[in-house]
Amino acid sequence: MSSGQAVEVRVSLDGLYKPSEDVVARTVEGEIIIVPLVAGIGDLEDELFTLNETGKAIWERLDGKRKLRDVLHELSEEFDASEGEIEQDLIGLVGELVGRRILVAVT
Amino acid sequence: MKRDPYVTRMKIEKASLWKDGGPILQALDIEITERCNNNCLHCCINLPADDSSALARELSAEALKEILREAAALGCMTVRFTGGEPLLRKDFEEVYLYARKIGLKVVLFTNATLMTPSLVELFSQIPPLERIEVSVYGMKRTSCEAITRVPGSFDAAWHGINLLLERKIPFAVKGVLLPANRGDAEEFENWAATLPWMDDLPSYSVFLDLHGRRNEKKNQMIRTLRPTPQEGVIFLARRKTTYLEEMKQFCSSFIGRTGDQLFSCNAGIGGGCVDAYGYFQLCMGLRHPDTVYDLSKGSLKEAMTRFFPEVRKLRASHPDYLARCARCFLKGLCEQCPGRSWTEHGTMDTPIEYLCEIAHTQAKQLGMLKEGQLAWEIEDWRERIRSFSEGRENEFRTSCGS
Fold it and tell me: What is the ipTM metric for this complex?
């Protein structure tokens, strides 16, 4: 497995998560573009990352100050989906981004 | 909520990410110095490495950072540091790091002679996210240094290249076709094919641009080094099958009459070039004073949204241009453009005979023109382009003598 591939991580709804200092997140033309700063974030050296609409809504709330559980409640109020579905999305995205070193857990 | 993949890995240029054409500035070239530690015979820009007058006028690191900051704010994703030799600047690492930390990808044009272990370590830790582009002037000391005119430059370049190879820093190589290294081409291409990051033959500068600051003494030298149109075209077609396929694709989309519109290229759209002293140009080649924008008196945004669009409205008025280039269907294949016209003639719309001959030679080779025909007199040009693009190859083979 190359260093840039996502690894499975345990994500807790009581955890705090924030963008890693290993990436630069930019908003360009309304899109969130995540640019690796250090080596090994992408599978290839020149890869950038972007988030879909769900990902954007979640990313914008991951500031290292709000527990995921609070983010889940905010999203439940905003989106027309069951809390179970949203939780699945939230855990899925955070797990993927932590696995890619794009997000880090705040301890 | 949607159940698409949350994270998409992508290359911006290949993704249809932008809904409305993308940011007004997508890529920026910066010539961070015109100085170079080589003294190449053919170079269209370089000044001596110790040129104190040039050094004094160069943008400071802080000024470069300010430009990079504005570029990123406008949505720019990639900056290309070129020169001169960018690594001559003592603050290169500082500027490079700044660009990367604000989320820009970096392309570096270099001769590799000033590559150091610490710089390669930096590229390893904080990758540029784009391949470094290394100019290689010769595979032998004699051929290389006959061009660079600096003893020791051959060893220095290969030391730098080996540092990049050892640390697996992605880089591509490119060449220039000159009498002194013509015999190295096959060896160069064979070696380039062994590099893991080369997905094609190395690109070459074949027909040599004149000096960007219109230095006539330098231009006299460059003219003597240029291949004849026939020699250059034969070199371009040396891998015939690949060349022919590329030309068919190119001609089907990019050649044709453009009338008196001077800018048929994309210069100044989505990008531009900042020179070493803070003047913003539509492209690297066009330094006509009426077309450059002084960034000390304005902004990248102002240039991109107001100044460049006005420049691009310029129309040709030179009678020879109107009689020939404006009616010539080889425009696109011919590299006549305002930048080259400026370096050759000091105007933006004077036909360049050398480029005209090259395009006609190439068109004859490809079977779109017959001997003695002039492309601006051809009325059935659309049919000729279509016929060539759709695959009539016999005339090409005949005119290539094979």
Answer: 0.89
Does 1.25.40.10 match the CATH number of domain A16-106?
A: no
Q: Which architecture does CATH list for B22-248?
A: Alpha-Beta Barrel (3.20)
Give the list of residues 6+ apart from residue B289 with CB closer than 8 angstroms, or none.
none
Inter-chain touch A24–B102, beta carbons under 8 Å: yes
In terms of C-beta density within 10 A (0-12 exposed, 13-18 middle, 19 or more buried), how is residue B20 classed? exposed
What's the rounded Cα separation, in Å, for the pair A18 and A59?
Answer: 9
Confidence of residue B5 (pLDDT cuts 50, 70, 90): low
Nearest to B7 among A49, A53, A75 (CB): A49
Nearest chain A CA: its distance from B1 CA (Å): 6
**Interchain pair A102, B7: CB under 8 A:** yes
**3-class DSSP state of A56:** helix
Tokens 């070696």 belong to residue: B191
Instruction: Kindly indicate the confidence band of residue A44, based on its pLDDT and cuts at 50, 70 and 90.
Output: low
Rounded CA gap, A37 and B27, in Å?
18
Domain spans of chain A, in order of start: 16-106
Smallest Cβ–Cβ distance between A55 and the set B7, B22, B104 belongs to B7
Our CA angle for B168, B124, B156, nearest 5°, is 65
Are the C-beta atoms of B351 and B325 separated by less than 8 Å? yes
Contacts of A46 in chain B (CB under 8 A): 11, 105, 129-131, 170
**Stated pTM of the model:** 0.92
Residue B401's pLDDT band (cuts 50, 70, 90): very low
pLDDT, tens digit, for every residue of B78-118?
999 999 999 999 999 999 999 999 999 999 999 999 999 99
Taking residues A84-101, report their average pLDDT: 90
Contact assessment for residue B80 and residue B28, using Cβ atoms and an 8 Å cutoff: yes
